[in-house]
Design goal:
The complex is a heterodimer. By secondary structure, chain A is α+β, with helices and mostly antiparallel strands. Chain A is built from 6 helices and 9 strands. Chain A has 2 domains: 82 residues, Alpha-Beta Plaits (2-Layer Sandwich); 67 residues, ACT-like. Chain A, domain 2 (Alpha-Beta Plaits, 2-Layer Sandwich). In chain A, strand 2 and strand 3 form a beta hairpin. By secondary structure, chain B is of the alpha/beta class. Chain B has 3 domains: 173 residues, Rossmann fold (3-Layer(aba) Sandwich), CATH 3.40.50.970; 154 residues, 3-Layer(aba) Sandwich (Rossmann fold); 174 residues, 3-Layer(aba) Sandwich (Rossmann fold), CATH 3.40.50. Chain B is built from 24 helices and 20 strands. The complex binds thiamine diphosphate.
């Protein structure tokens, strides 16, 4: 079986130790987490983990069932890239003088549809949201001019199909 | 007035009782039906010990000699009684000493609740004296864990801990309680936990899958059952027996399934796995339908997965969805408690017998008898074999004892040859293979089943890993019987060195102390046997003794356990010598 990108979505109670428990599942199997994002979900009081891995579908299925087994986890799913709409965000901090000295930078900003978040005398900050390769491309284009700081977020994703969790949660609401 | 009665009265008046967290812990334990717990005191758990002192008439606290002893005793108690075992320890080293037992209970699905003391909340994270992150440490080896930092949390969290430990696929739970939460007061009321919304302990049986399974079973020409501890944990012994008898299907067991079906049942064909019986291993690769009931396809059972039961359709009866397709890809999964699933399946299967197929198991048994068993049971050399000792114990106890084994050759021999007619009678560290398990686990087993004869069987190596628990036996006057099969070697490792490392016996030779004197030092009756002529008498004397008894049997030094599936080999390539 081929390695592939999978997005694992975990709906859970909001509990202190759960992140540790979930990361332990990957650690135990020597699987690298490519990105991890924790946020609230569409359901009040329920957290959502979005975890990206590059591995086989067998392993992914196995990991998802181990995650789902944890007491505070309500449901876990996995999806391929084709089945999801996904994005990452990145921030680039760049010296302000470059805006004026290097024409090319203005073109990069325009073409990449990045946003200028702030400009000061010393630096300006660009925010870019998109697929990983788009962010990577922008990075490579800016790199020759000097990037003062760079950070990229974990992937966030929603599925094209409905998350089959609504019924479960309706049950919760009644309880 | 007795505190519990007063508590009940106050509760019925719907008025909460104002008590300390430490006292609340005791009330929670009593409300959960706990009457015995195992532990060791220390600074961060002293308020609880102070309450244990006050409640000593209602709650029997057993002071073990090491926290590892406490948790193994709690495991032994749980496995003999079917109830939740409880262990308690202080923070820091007390807590870390529990870890091996937690890991053992996790992999063998044993319901235990461990309570640890912790430094006061305001010192958390300051590297205070005896502070250790036991929540972080125990996370991978617990079914659930939680740190209580406020007294008010105690009743709800402990109720949840017991519920999670015993429900669904059981397992260990650790609750860490900061010292301030033990000292502070709360308004105490206790409600047993009835469910946790994010946790579904038992999947609903799928009736269509049960129909499909019945169809496969009724069609099969060479069906074969391998059952595991799921039968015992699910209290499905009667359902298994009815199912086996109606279907006429030969049934083998994993070492944790042992004793769930009478050893002498005509359809009980023996043990699977690395040192299991010949037929049950070889015929795994000849059956046309494999019914795996409450077992998890451990690698010690399957050998090489690429050649495991490839010709057969596989039906997996399993309570834990995460086990399905984990190691062996199955054709059909019957999720749920085996008790319920087997009961639903029973009316749908045809009454049959599989005489010729069962005959193949008998034929293979004959081969194994000629190559291995005869030599084990009636050796033609003067040295005693481990199997002879087990056979003598069978005779002296009429198959009614609880046998608690340690890890190594004696464990495999005991599982191969011990006979049982009651469930929950074989207690051993299966998944983790924890040397040092037997002695403390036997203490717990005896306390969990006072009316049963409990015999710990250990090697000279593993016995010394928790030998200090002789002190617990002495102090509590627990009448367990202890048998050490002494080959003056770390036998199982020596066997591998002989077979796979050209007899380079690296660090497996043991220079042993006088075990009889050590037992006598604890005022435990003790005896040593090295001659065949003395064996039966010594075993009979041990069983007749109403008190604890220690028996050392000097056995042949370099015997090997066969059959054996070399690691990584196929079940069909099991070696008879
Ligand atoms: C805590 C622990 N350490 C190491 C091992 C590895 N091990 C497995 S069997 C064995 C030898 C056991 O020797 P002994 O207790 O004398 O029993 P025998 O095999 O001779 O019956 C060892 C060292 C283990 N299972 N557990």
């Amino acid at each position: 079986m081929e390695n592939q990108w999978f997005t694992i979505s975990v709906y859970s109670e909001n509990q202190v130790g759960l992140l540790n428990r979930i990361s332990g599942i990957f650690l135990k199997r020597h699987i690298n987490v490519e990105s991890l994002n924790v946020s609230k979900s569409e359901i009040e009081g329920i957290s959502k983990f979005t975890i990206v891995v590059n591995t086989t579908e067998d392993w992914t299925r196995h990991i998802v069932s181990q995650i789902e087994k944890q007491i505070e986890v309500i449901k876990a799913f996995y999806h391929t890239d084709d089945e999801t709409i996904y994005q990452e965000s990145a921030l680039f901090k760049i010296g302000s003088h470059l805006l004026f000295d290097e024409r090319q930078i203005q073109n990069i900003i325009k073409d990449s549809h990045a946003q200028i978040v702030t400009v000061s005398r010393e630096f300006f900050v660009l925010a870019k949201t998109g697929r990983r390769h788009e962010i990577d491309q922008m990075y490579h284009e800016l790199e020759p001019f000097g990037i003062m700081q760079f950070v990229r977020s974990g992937r966030i994703a929603v599925t094209k199909a409905e998350m089959p969790i609504s019924a479960l949660l309706a049950e919760f609401q009644q309880a | 007035m007795e505190p519990v009665k007063e508590l009940k009265k106050q509760q019925t008046q719907e008025k909460a009782l104002k008590i300390t967290g430490a006292e609340a812990i005791i009330h929670c334990l009593l409300a959960e039906g706990v009457n015995t717990l195992y532990g060791y005191p220390g600074g961060a758990i002293m308020p609880v010990y102070d309450e244990l002192y006050k409640f000593r008439d209602q709650l029997h606290h057993v002071l073990t000699r090491h926290e590892q002893g406490a948790v193994h005793a709690a495991q032994g108690f749980a496995r003999a009684s079917g109830r939740v075992g409880v262990a308690i320890a202080t923070s820091g080293p007390g807590a870390t000493n529990l870890v091996t037992g937690l890991a053992d209970a996790q992999i063998d699905s044993t319901p235990v609740v461990c309570i640890t003391g912790q430094v006061p909340r305001h010192l958390l994270g300051s590297d205070a004296f005896q502070e250790t992150d036991i929540i972080g440490i125990s996370t991978p080896v617990t079914k659930w864990n939680y740190q209580i930092t406020r007294a008010e949390e105690i009743p709800e969290i402990l109720a949840k801990a017991f519920y999670i430990a015993r429900s669904g696929r059981p397992g260990p739970v650790l609750v860490d309680i900061t010292k301030n939460a033990q000292f502070d007061s709360l308004d105490f009321t206790y409600k047993p936990c009835k469910g946790v919304r994010s946790y579904k302990p038992v999947p609903q049986p799928d009736l269509a899958a049960i129909e499909a399974a019945a169809h496969l079973i009724n069609q099969a020409k060479k069906p074969y059952i391998v059952f595991g501890q799921g039968i015992i944990l699910g209290k499905a012994e009667a359902e298994l027996k009815a199912f086996v008898e109606k279907s006429g299907i030969p049934a083998a067991w994993t070492i944790l399934g042992l004793s769930a079906l009478d050893s002498d049942h005509p359809l009980n064909v023996g043990m699977v796995g690395m040192h299991g019986n010949y037929g049950p291993n070889v015929l795994t690769n000849e059956c046309d339908l494999l019914l795996a009931i409450g077992m998890r396809f451990d690698d010690r059972v399957t050998g090489n997965l690429a050649t495991y039961a490839k010709q057969a359709k596989v039906i997996h009866f399993e309570i834990d969805p995460a086990e399905v397709n984990k190691n062996v890809k199955v054709d059909l999964a019957l999720l749920g408690n085996a008790k319920e699933t087997l009961a639903l399946l029973l009316p749908k299967i045809e009454k049959k017998s599989h005489g010729a197929w069962l005959g193949e198991f008998h034929k293979k048994y004959e081969e194994e008898y000629e190559a291995v068993i005869r030599r084990d049971m009636k050796p033609d050399k003067p040295g005693l074999t481990m199997a002879e000792v087990i056979a003598e114990i069978n005779k002296a106890t009429d198959h009614n004892a609880i046998i608690v084994t340690d890890v190594g050759q004696h464990q495999m021999v005991a599982c191969r040859y011990a006979k049982f007619r009651q469930s929950k009678s074989n207690i051993t560290s299966g998944g983790l293979g924890t040397m040092g398990f037997a002695l403390p686990a036997a203490i717990g087993a005896k306390m969990g089943a006072m009316d049963r004869e409990v015999i710990a069987i250990a090697g000279d190596g593993g016995y010394q890993m928790n030998i200090q628990e002789l002190g617990t036996i002495f102090q509590t006057r627990t009448p367990v019987k202890i048998v050490v099969l002494n080959n003056d070697f770390l036998g199982m490792v020596r066997q591998w060195q002989e077979l796979f490392f050209d007899k380079r016996y690296a660090s497996t030779v043991m220079t042993n102390p006088d075990f009889v004197k050590i037992a006598e030092g604890y005022h435990i009756k003790a005896c040593r046997v090295s001659e065949r002529a003395d064996l039966a008498g010594a075993v009979a004397e041990m069983i007749a003794c109403p008190d604890a008894y220690f028996l050392e049997v000097k056995v042949e030094k370099e015997d090997n356990v066969f059959p054996m599936i070399p690691s990584g080999a196929s079940v069909s390539d099991i070696r008879l010598k």
